[in-house]
């Protein structure tokens, strides 16, 4: 079976826009450390998202809210050092941009200067337009995020599908238009009806990346720990597991422990 591989050598916002125009789907995955970023980049992933989901899968928190700007910069720096081709975008964490546009700009500049990332991602629509405008004015590429916005989980009170009702759907569509008009280079749509995501992707000129938003968008994003089956409990409908590393790692470590206990490891050939 032949596999289509893009001829793009270094992914940029311009290249992502061109991919949408020619109908080439965009692949996007989360990354939080050097080793994983190196693997994902070499495999040909178009966009690496240093997500605030690191708060969950790396630090063990129940939500994305606790992770700090300093911690996001640490993860982003590690990912950038492992990346040669992919576009690296970093989540601005909760509390680093909602207060005012000056704070948002300072946060974005710190990420860009200290990590070497290529852009930032913010959750929200018209209510954060001042922050987005201020960041863009400094030449920092901005990716939007609408639908289920995990930083607002205590407002929503649930991780269920968003924008099922007409009023919320129209609000999301209007927010998407605003984000494009402000100058965002792409938007993530999380856990919304497929028909609404299709409408957004068809109407807007910028790439629309979905997670739980159906097949009619311009690309897809998943959390790498979920895709690889490292996490076990998280089983949403939209998740396809491409490996079961939880079992693989557990089996390997159990074998190592057994060999250490039995003094089978290290063998004479594994000693100096």
From TrEMBL:
Pathway: Cofactor biosynthesis; (R)-pantothenate biosynthesis; (R)-pantoate from 3-methyl-2-oxobutanoate: step 1/2. Its main location: cytoplasm. GO terms for molecular function: 3-methyl-2-oxobutanoate hydroxymethyltransferase activity; magnesium ion binding; methyltransferase activity. Keywords: Cytoplasm, Magnesium, Metal-binding, Methyltransferase, Pantothenate biosynthesis, Transferase. The gene is panB. PANTHER family: 3-METHYL-2-OXOBUTANOATE HYDROXYMETHYLTRANSFERASE. Its cofactor is Mg(2+). GO terms for cellular component: cytoplasm. This is 3-methyl-2-oxobutanoate hydroxymethyltransferase. Gene3D superfamilies: Phosphoenolpyruvate-binding domains (3.20.20.60). InterPro entries: Pantoate_hydroxy_MeTrfase, Pyrv/PenolPyrv_kinase-like_dom, Pyrv_kinase-like_dom_sf. GO terms for biological process: methylation; pantothenate biosynthetic process. 3-methyl-2-oxobutanoate binds at residues 52-53, 91, 121. Binds 1 Mg(2+) ion per subunit. It is found in: Cytoplasm. It catalyses: (6R)-5,10-methylene-5,6,7,8-tetrahydrofolate + 3-methyl-2-oxobutanoate + H2O = 2-dehydropantoate + (6S)-5,6,7,8-tetrahydrofolate. CDD domains: KPHMT-like. Mg(2+) binds at residues 52, 91, 123. The keyword Cytoplasm applies.
């Amino acid at each position: 079976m032949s596999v289509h591989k893009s001829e793009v050598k270094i992914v940029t916002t311009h290249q992502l826009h061109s991919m949408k125009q020619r109908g080439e789907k965009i692949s996007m995955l989360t990354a939080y450390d050097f080793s994983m970023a190196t693997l994902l980049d070499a495999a040909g992933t178009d966009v690496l998202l240093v997500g605030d989901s690191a708060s969950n899968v790396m630090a063990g928190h129940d939500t994305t809210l606790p992770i700090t700007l300093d911690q996001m910069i640490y993860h982003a720096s590690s990912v950038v050092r492992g990346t040669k081709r992919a576009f690296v975008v970093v989540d601005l964490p909760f509390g680093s941009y909602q207060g005012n546009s000056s704070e948002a700009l300072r946060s974005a500049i710190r990420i860009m200067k200290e990590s070497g990332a290529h852009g930032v991602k913010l959750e929200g629509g018209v209510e954060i337009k001042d922050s987005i405008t201020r960041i863009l004015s400094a030449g920092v590429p901005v990716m939007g995020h609408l639908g289920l916005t995990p930083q607002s989980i205590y407002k929503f009170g649930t991780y269920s599908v968003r924008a099922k009702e007409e009023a919320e759907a129209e609000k999301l569509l209007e927010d998407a238009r605003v984000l494009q008009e402000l100058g965002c280079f792409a938007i993530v749509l999380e856990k919304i009806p497929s028909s609404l995501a299709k409408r957004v992707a068809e109407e807007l000129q910028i790439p629309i990346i979905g997670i739980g938003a159906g097949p009619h968008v311009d690309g897809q994003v998943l959390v790498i720990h979920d895709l690889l089956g490292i996490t076990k409990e998280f089983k949403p409908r939209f998740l396809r597991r491409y490996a079961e590393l939880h079992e693989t790692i557990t089996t390997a470590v159990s074998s190592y422990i057994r060999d250490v206990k039995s003094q089978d490891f290290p063998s004479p050939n594994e000693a100096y």
